[in-house]
Amino acid sequence: MHAVIRSVRASVSLALSVSPRGRCIAIGTCLHLMQRAVYGSCITVTPKCAERAIATMTSAGPTGTDDHGLVSVGEVRSFVQRCVVAAGAAEKHAESLAAVLVAADERGHFSHGLNRLGMYVMEVREGNCDGHATPSVVRETPATAFVDGENGIGTVVSTYCMEIAIKKAKEVGVGWVTCKDSNHFGIAGFYSLLAIKEGLIGMAFTNTSPLVVPTRAKKSVLGTNAMAFATPAKSGDSFVLDMATSTVSIGKVEMEQRKGLSIPIGWGVDKDGMPTTNPGDVIDGSTGGLCPLGGGERTGGYKGYGLSMMVEALCGVMTGGPYAHHIRKWTADKSPAHVSHSFIAMDPTVFNPDYKQRMGDFMGEMRSLDPVDPDKPVLVAGDPEREHVAEVEKDGGIWYHRNVISAMASELGCCRAYMHAHAHTH
């Protein structure tokens, strides 16, 4: 196993000193090595491993830089799925998680994609999350349902809930589903997009571990409490708002720390509640935390604070689950998370048959506004993500910063529980 770890690290180092094409191969080999650390079938960079890596990696595009490498979408999806299965999850549940994490990276939300894999693997491996659990409906009406997540993988529970909401919306115009005893569900927008595919408006809300310091406070007691609103428009267009109620998610702070960068003022505060540019002050929940959306009080942070409480009212408070600081600490507490979610699907045509046409016109008017910078046109929510997806398709893969891959080597290759996965699965 130590040979595996050394080979993984060597592969990452190799990626720094070769051509863009070589970086693709090296990073692909690194992913394969970490997969084999799970299955115990390869402990060195053999020609066979390299050959498979070359076959699945693509040529570097013009956007490549010295500290990034290109990985095919299929390669990332396979890597995530195998790691989660090896940690002890059911194959179909691993597929669900892989779909959400890859979608995050495809859409440019790198804080919630591969960056989160280590957390999911350890949650399943250590038994904090049940990788085989199937959610169930506790009670329902024609338009609502209350679901018990059974401590299952958050993406599995959430997809189940939104599918119920969609079914009810098609039948009676609106479907609202809440659930308790779930786990981190990835990007909220993934579930609202499920509704769009059915021609419906979709909304998703979730509470999280306490990471946000309320306005005028010094202690982090609220979650980033994400929310998403997505609506279809004419000609396949859509408006997709996917956001945390904090200025940024904790994942974005982690990404800056991994890159060795400072964070902007307004992202977080230190142990005294004062603005900080040190990501370490924010990530260590015992010393500081994130700012609510808007930052400080003078810049409207109290509005993000209010939005966070609104999401909590729809999640933890409504479902009877833990809320705010009653939810376990982020990554420090090894008990089940008991996260709550809320999902809404709605058929806009029950109110206006011309809704999609009007929504498209509305978005078109915003996009046609005269921009401050001619090179930066006015966009609407969802446009940056669509552009990123198009770039991924054009380049033939996703560009990852080398430190993300290095972190995978550290989190997955050097963790005792993960190294014992082979004994667990075979």
Mean pLDDT: 84
Overall 3D shape:
globular
Radius of gyration: 22 Å
DSSP summary, beta strand count? 11
Instruction: Output the number of helix runs.
Output: 16
Strand arrangement, major sheet: 2-3-4-10-5-6-7
What order do the helices and strands come in, and which of them pair?
Elements: H1 2-14, H2 20-39, H3 47-56, E1 68-71, H4 73-87, H5 91-106, H6 117-125, E2 136-140, E3 144-148, H7 154-172, E4 174-182, H8 189-196, E5 201-206, E6 227-232, E7 238-243, H9 250-258, E8 268-269, H10 279-283, E9 289-290, H11 301-319, E10 339-346, H12 355-367, H13 383-395, E11 398-401, H14 402-413, H15 416-419, H16 421-425
Parallel strand pairs: 3-4
Antiparallel strand pairs: 1-11, 2-3, 4-10, 5-6, 5-10, 6-7, 8-9
Helix pairs in contact: 1-2, 1-14, 2-3, 2-4, 2-14, 4-5, 4-6, 5-7, 7-8
Describe what you observe in this structure.
The chain is α+β, with helices and mostly antiparallel strands and 426 residues long. The protein is built from 16 helices and eleven strands. The strands form three sheets. A seven-stranded mixed β-sheet has the order 2-3-4-10-5-6-7. Strands 1-11 form a two-stranded antiparallel ribbon. The chain has a two-stranded antiparallel sheet with strand order 8-9. Strand 2 (136-140) and strand 3 form a beta hairpin. The longest helix has 20 residues, at 20-39. It starts with a helix and ends with a helix. Mean pLDDT is 84; it is low at 1-26, 37-64 and 414-426.
